Amino acid sequence: MLVGWLALNFLPIHAVPQPQYHSVRPSESTSVSIGLAKHCSKAVPISAAEFHSRQDKLAQTLHALNATAYIAEPGADALYYANLSMSSWKLSERPLLLVITPDASDSELVKAKVSILTPKFETARARLLPIAFQDVTFLEWAEEANPYEMVKPALAEADAAGTIFVDGHARHFIVDGLQSAFPTATVKSSPTEIRQLRERKSKAELELMKCANEATVLAIRETRKKMYIGIRESETSALIEAAFKGAGLKDGGCLTLFGENAALPHGSGADRKLGVHDFALLDCGASLHGYPSDVTRTFALNDSQISAEQKRIWNAVWGAQNIAFTTAEAGVVAKRIDKAARLFLSLNGLDQYFTHRLGHGIGLEGHEDPYINGGSETVLKTGHSFSDEPGVYIEGDIGVRLEDCFYIADDGQPVYLTAGVGGVATSPWEP
Ligand SMILES: *[C@@H]1O[C@H](CO)[C@@H](O)[C@H](O)[C@H]1NC(C)=O
Ligand SMILES: *[C@@H]1O[C@H](CO)[C@@H](O)[C@H](O)[C@H]1NC(C)=O
Ligand SMILES: *[C@@H]1O[C@H](CO)[C@@H](O)[C@H](O)[C@H]1NC(C)=O
């Protein structure tokens, strides 16, 4: 009762959603029909101009923070600023570093100065990298040299007692090496002001993310049509991987879990056959020009026999997903969104089975800062994008998770990245 009373004061209760589907199965499909194979054929990768503007924004932020430099290893941050990914340069014991420093010689407009620290014997290969910059200096370190000493020419005057920010994923020995080479400088992980540059997505990024997520929903729907009672989890995964390949998306795959296997959020390892009383849970992702999607659907086949209790649980998760979405807007503290979903499940007596956080940031990384959990003080801003993925997991019995990612649009309101193909599932038969 207490919980119910709290909920009434906390949730926009008039807006508590109820799925509007027919009691057994829909009479006609309402899904938007767009060919999966061609869905992302017109997607445009991030332009050189956008990379340059990211570098300059970083330089301006460094300048505003009185920092000397920003240094990243190949990875999501270097990919964001310079198109330098771990797939184009594998990490090894020999450092290759992206160094960006602010050039404030024109006091009106701070520009980025970009350098790459490279092993000397690999300079030719480093020059072939598809790195996006207008002008770059290669700093070479020979095998017998201390690589971090060779960063000095990039930092020029200010290296004595400045602040050097490093990408949060940089390995410890890199940070140690930099600190030893610059003993009077402060070497530390990037602060919020810098992390937010990548956390808040641009229009071009959102276009790619929308296409990847829409295609993922279409791939799940296409796969469902080919599934039958008795199909194995591995066979289902193979069907959807083929659908992703056909659509030109990379690294496509799903965690596929049937029946009680879905009660283990990250799977059981057993290759179960789909039973007539089972829900199928597919948690899928694929990447488009470096941006991964993340969509989960829990559904039944037309031939499945689904109990009233299974439907009740599905509806509760659906309601939690919707309540979380309607709670999210610019200015809201992330933990409130997690709490709204949890409170909705508690009204259905199911909150104890929602064992993980509501969502994660998504962008160049499938899971990235910031996160939506019960302790997250992050204030949502325009361009932030997150997964919204409540779940109910009753061990040995049932698992239901529904996941769509959303972003905060310029008007401060949330928009699902799957909206272009109808958005969230509308019933257990319409994923
Ligand atoms: C970024 O790198 C990819 C290959 O990883 C390449 O296809 C693309 O052209 C590069 N983008 C720019 C702007 O250089
Ligand atoms: C940067 O330095 C200027 C001048 O010394 C100072 O006014 C300003 O507060 C500093 N900014 C930061 C973020 O430390
Ligand atoms: C499932 O039922 C719906 C509604 O009757 C129908 O439109 C759809 O084609 C059916 N799907 C399969 C795979 O038979």
UniProtKB/TrEMBL annotation:
InterPro entries assigned to the protein according to its UniProt record, in alphabetical order: Creatin/AminoP/Spt16_N, Creatinase/aminopeptidase-like, Pept_M24, Peptidase_M24B
Protein name: Creatinase/aminopeptidase
Superkingdom, natural source: Eukaryota
UniProt xrefs under Pfam families: Peptidase_M24
Domain Peptidase M24: 207-408
SUPFAM superfamilies: Creatinase/aminopeptidase (SSF55920), Creatinase/prolidase N-terminal domain (SSF53092)
Residues of the signal peptide: 1-15
Coiled-coil regions listed: none
GO molecular function (one): aminopeptidase activity
